[in-house]
Amino acid sequence: MKLPPITVYLDTIVRINHLPVSDSGQWFFYQGMLFLSRRKWWADFGTRHATHEGLDIGIFKNRSGNREWLDSSARVPVMASGTVINVCDDFLGRSVIVRHCSNKQSRQVSVYSHLKVPGTISPGKKVDPGDIVGTIADTTGKKSGIHCHLHISLMEIAQQIPDPKITWQVMGEPDPEMVKLFNPMV
Ligand SMILES: [Zn+2]
């Protein structure tokens, strides 16, 4: 997939939210936050029901060198220009799916999950890099005890699946014939 490197995207999150980091690249990831991990990084730190389809972004190092979590005021930018093709529910909030390019067989998308999404973000909306598609959902009161975080996924999805059908039913345990996952860290 041809999208800007993840470091550029993480720097955009820092800039847009005025995060008090001392330097760029000051992010921390538990193993369970990484692409294809089978570990949980919350609750009992047990096994996920499926491998992780993306990257969880939630912890940065502040100017004192301490780890700090993003909170529900954090605004979520898109990483590249494209068009919103669907907004669907996920288990912690809502997900916004942005198409960046397409051909006859498939289209490449980025997915931003566990958000609170304003009504202005809906299918057909054109977006540019850094445009805000929502804020991180407040999950502090949920039973799961999962900290506020942003999940991103990069996927190539077959055209046989129409835009409105692209939900976590399709993306969560993807059929390799229809959905190809990419590592956002590469
Ligand atoms: Zn995730």
UniProtKB/TrEMBL annotation:
Superkingdom per UniProt: Bacteria
InterPro entries found in the cross-reference section: Dup_hybrid_motif (IPR011055), M23ase_b-sheet_dom (IPR016047)
Lineage, top ranks: Bacteria, Pseudomonadati, Thermodesulfobacteriota, Desulfobacteria, Desulfobacterales
SUPFAM superfamilies listed in its UniProt record: Duplicated hybrid motif (SSF51261)
Protein name: Membrane protein
Membrane spanning stretches: none
Residue ranges of every copy of the M23ase beta-sheet core domain listed in the record: 74-156
